[in-house]
């Protein structure tokens, strides 16, 4: 008996909700003819109804969205970090290369100097 009565009440509630929604739609139609502010008001009312009906669903959606956003942010941060590390590595490599080049240049210069010195010595010796 209890179950049947509750189900009846539930059905009634559903009917009332449908009626409310229909009324809302009618109101929306009227408001569209009248003004946009009215539409906003009705939309707000509809939103409230939806919130009442699907609060948990919306909460779940929000939670999921937040999680997704957090994940995306984390991924982006990781990517940025990786990029930074890569850039740092590249910079280090470039620095090393530059150092190597400088060293090579220095070595070449030294060799040239040595050669020049040798040439000078030879010249002196010959003289």
Short key terms for the protein model shown above:
127 residues; mainly alpha; single chain
Strand content: under 5%
Question: Total strand count, please?
Answer: 0
What number is the mean pLDDT?
74
By DSSP (H or I, 4+ residues per run), the number of helices equals 3
Q: Major sheet, described briefly?
A: none
Query: What is the gyration radius calculated from CA atoms?
Result: 40 Å
Structural class: mainly alpha
Measured between the Cα atoms of the first and last residue, the distance is 132 Å
What form results from the Cα inertia axes?
rod-shaped
Helix content: over 70%
The string of secondary-structure elements, in order, is HHH
Unreliable parts: none
Give an overview in words.
It is a single chain. The protein is 97% helix and 0% strand. It has three helices and no strands. It has helices at residues 2-34, 36-53, 55-126. The radius of gyration is 40 Å and the shape is rod-shaped.
């Amino acid at each position: 008996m209890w179950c049947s009565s509750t189900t009846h009440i539930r059905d009634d509630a559903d009917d009332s909700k449908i009626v409310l929604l229909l009324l809302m739609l009618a109101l929306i139609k009227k408001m569209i003819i009248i003004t946009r502010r009215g539409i906003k008001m009705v939309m707000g009312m509809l939103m409230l109804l939806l919130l009442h009906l699907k609060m948990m669903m919306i909460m779940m959606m929000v939670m999921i969205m937040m999680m997704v956003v957090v994940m995306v942010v984390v991924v982006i941060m990781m990517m940025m970090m990786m990029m930074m590390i890569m850039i740092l590595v590249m910079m280090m490599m470039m620095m090393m290369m530059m150092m190597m080049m400088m060293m090579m240049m220095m070595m070449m210069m030294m060799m040239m100097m040595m050669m020049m010195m040798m040439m000078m010595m030879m010249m002196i010796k010959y003289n």
